[in-house]
Design goal:
Layout (H helix, E strand, L loop, with lengths): L19 E5 L15 H9 L17 E6 L6 H4 L1
Parallel strand pairs: 1-2
């Protein structure tokens, strides 16, 4: 299940207000060992509830608005999916 508010105060429901758009691509059908990458988008959303809105270099992202478009539905026709 996707958390409806994983980005805290950065989240916006309006695409035109967003400075960044997030879309998960849950896919692990091409791995042969240690599957689990398909859970990455949901895990990132979960973890972000506990992380401050900063970049890896410490820049605070208090002015950024994020639109979360959810996850891409699985499509086994890879050219269309990617």
């Amino acid at each position: 299940m996707i958390d409806p508010h994983p980005w805290g105060e950065l989240l916006t429901g309006e695409l035109q207000e967003a400075g960044a758009c997030i879309m998960g691509v849950p896919f692990d059908l091409a791995v042969s060992y240690a599957k689990g990458t398909a859970q990455a988008p949901e895990r990132i959303r979960y973890l972000y509830r506990y992380l401050p809105p900063t970049t890896e270099t410490g820049v605070y992202l208090n002015q950024l608005k994020v639109f979360d478009a959810g996850d891409m539905p699985l499509d086994l026709q890879w050219e269309r999916y990617f």
